[in-house]
Structure formats: structure tokens, C-alpha cells
Amino acid sequence: MSKTLINVIDREGAVREVEWEPEQSLMETLRDNDFPILASCGGTVSCATCHVFLEKPVVESLSPRTEDELELLEDAEAYNPEASRLSCQIKQCSSLAGINVTLAPEED
Asked: What's the pTM?
């Protein structure tokens, strides 16, 4: 499997292209590239601190949200049913090359 390039839009609106390594979750890629993703649960779907927005076609191409993921997202202030995902639940795949990932606002 090869690296995948994606575009990440930070909370200030700046866009940066980053490499998504094989076998990594999107959350791990964001943390490895110094984006302010807290990911306090380490990817166990018990917090929503790795909340991101993806474009609707990308969301539709991914596996459906689990019940735990959906419950956490629905409690998030910035939840968008068409765009919200927990980045810890998205694994690298070549079909995701070039996607735009937007960091969700921090929760108060």
C-alpha cells in the first residue's frame, strides 16, 4: 500500500497537504502532522476530540458510523449529519487520495 496525499483545513482555514501513511487512521495522521487533535481516548471511540468534517460523497463512500460513533457525534456542538466523522474510525485507503478534511471546532 502506498502513501495517500490529503488536504487538511485547520481551524483557522489554512490548507496543508499531508501524507497519510498506510495502516494509519486519519486521527493518527492528523496528530503526526501536528494538527491540534486531542484524541484523548486514543481511538477507542469514547470521546469526540478527533471530530472532522468530510465532503458528503466521501462520507457516503465510507463504512457507516457505528452506534457508538454516532452517539458521540450527535452530542458534539458542531455535529453535521452529512459531514461529521470521528477521524479515529477512518483507515487509510488509496480511494481517499486528495480528499479535504476539515477540523471541527473545539468543544467548550
From this structure: 0.93
